Fold this sequence. Notes:
Layout: H1 4-8, H2 12-26, H3 29-38, E1 48-52, H4 58-66, E2 71-76, H5 79-86, E3 96-99, E4 114-120, H6 130-139, E5 140-151, H7 156-165, H8 171-185, H9 190-199, E6 202-211, E7 214-221
Parallel strand pairs: 1-2, 1-4, 2-3, 4-5
Antiparallel strand pairs: 5-7, 6-7
Helix pairs in contact: 7-8
Amino acid sequence: MPTHQSLSGSTDEQLVQRMVATHAERHGADYWKVLAEQVAPRLPARPTVVDVGCGPGLWLRDLGERYRGAALHGYDVTPAMLAHGRQLVWTGPTPTLALLDVTTEPLPHAAGTVDLVGMSSVLHVLDEPLPVLAEIRRVLAPGGTFLLNDWIRQPLETYLAWRRDTMGESEAECLPGGFRLFPAHNKYTTGDWRWLLGRAGFALRGQAQLRPSHVIFVAAPDGARGAPSGA
């Protein structure tokens, strides 16, 4: 599958360090407030949680501190990400972290057994998102939640300014890197994401926009319909 590294030209270690450095900004108090209001009420006391494209494991770590009875599972295609996750201090439950390409391999969970699937800033990279969404829908329990957090389309000027002002890139970094990544990061509008979720058989429960560049979607398998044909 395509990766952020292959698109940006960064090394695995550079991306690990960037994700670690920006984690607190991306998952601050407002983020966890959205989860508390839109996700937590539907979770059982001991949820099974899957993070698809788990990166360095920080989201699972933070979630485990809030749900100490959770069973946590993280999957990524980059060994350096998993290595970082395995060396974290886990004060909550220790996760299962495994190398897996969800575009070519099924998730190692039986149908209808996962309470929460998280996916952050990964789905936009994929050439064909619908089969991956179908696999996520397959493993979700009735009433389970798919938490999608991903890029939305911005004007070029706004996107480049964000890289300069928020990410702290110099002009020399911002322009070549920004032009290279702009097509991937600005592939979908909010409406496109909503359409994709509906096409894959999800019902939207809620959404939130905490940053200009990203929208959080809270979705669930649409029980009123079967698996969509062609997904």
